[in-house]
Write a structure and sequence with these properties.
L-arginine/glycine Amidinotransferase, Chain A, three-stranded mixed sheet, Dimethylarginine dimethylaminohydrolase family protein
């Protein structure tokens, strides 16, 4: 048999286009590189059957601070979602959550959004592990890339990291994020061009960064100064970030006054009942929109805890 001699090989070359340049076409229009860029889309979980039966006798075993009225809690979260929609934010919901996961409404803990997709978290508390499976399913339905699932001996919760700007992210380690989890997140962020990772220890008196710091505007961060570490503040100063100190410990701890979400630079949604914090924000030219989450806060979470960002405009 005569075979015609041909050049061997596949005779083509792979595309060198970066993932981020093709993401919108192949996956969807998802993006986040800040805590304050105009908010376009969020992921939430409307409390379902899993929050029923949390009473004065058993709330502590669920790590709640008190019993919870399911209907009132749902009404409060519905009002928050309606407020988001009023400001043009698409609200997506995780469904089919396990009935033994009453903390699943705190969506920020379960994913951390980046310019190239979501980092799927692994909670530190065994009772919360498994919540992320329903989140992964919803992200797949929406077309949000999952660029990393925390694995191995790592654990990491989304509120342990905070965007400062496209170049800078704060990552905290503590009871909810260990070194292995933080290292996995840092690797992914550096792979997509984040050049400045500020590592800090989350103190014993807080579980997440949003318990004592939050961005209020472009390069402007409000902090509770007795919890934030010196090295963290020094690096933020070097990065050109203005620090606004919040001294009102009762509002911070009981009123969760820093647990807010920015709709855009200089405009935040925060829980009612924190007049001193509200005044301080307004003194720094921040518009404050208040919501009543008094029932939901019995789960030790507020606006920021319940809101996972899926899309923000670049700043």
């Amino acid at each position: 048999m005569n075979w015609k001699l041909k050049v061997q090989g596949e005779r083509w070359f792979p595309s060198e286009i970066p993932f981020s340049d093709e993401m919108k076409e192949n996956w969807g229009d998802w993006y986040c590189d800040s805590e304050v860029g105009k908010l376009r889309a969020v992921l939430m979980h409307r409390p379902g059957a899993e929050i029923e039966g949390i009473t004065v006798e058993n709330y502590e075993q669920y790590r709640f601070r008190g019993a919870i009225n399911p209907e009132k809690a749902r009404q409060e979260q519905d009002a928050l979602a309606d407020l988001y929609r009023q400001y043009g934010v698409e609200v997506h919901y995780v469904g089919e959550q396990r009935k033994d996961k009453p903390n699943a409404m705190f969506m920020r803990d379960l994913l951390f959004m980046t310019p190239e997709g979501a980092i799927l978290c692994r909670p530190s508390i065994p009772a919360r592990r498994g919540e992320e499976r329903a989140v992964a399913k919803k992200l797949g339905e929406l077309g949000v890339p999952i660029i990393k699932t925390i694995n191995g001996d790592g654990y990491f919760e989304g509120a342990s990291a905070m965007w400062v700007n496209r170049d800078t992210v704060i990552i905290g380690t503590g009871s909810r994020t260990n070194e292995s989890g933080a290292h996995q997140v840092e690797n992914e962020l550096r792979n997509m061009g984040v050049s400045n990772i500020i590592r800090t220890e989350i103190p014993y008196g807080s579980i997440h960064l949003d318990g004592y710091m939050n961005m209020i505007d472009k390069n402007k961060l409000m902090v509770f100064p007795w919890h934030v570490g010196y090295d963290c503040i020094r690096q933020l100063h070097e990065a050109g970030v203005e620090i606004v100190e919040l001294p009102y410990i009762e509002e911070l701890k009981l009123g969760m006054s820093l647990n807010f979400v920015a709709l855009e630079p200089g405009k935040v949604v925060m829980v009612k009942g924190n007049p001193l914090t509200k005044k301080l924000l307004e003194e720094h030219n921040v518009e404050v929109i208040e919501v009543d989450l008094s029932e939901l806060m019995n789960g030790w979470g507020a606006v920021h805890c319940m809101t996972a960002f899926l899309k923000r405009d670049p700043i």
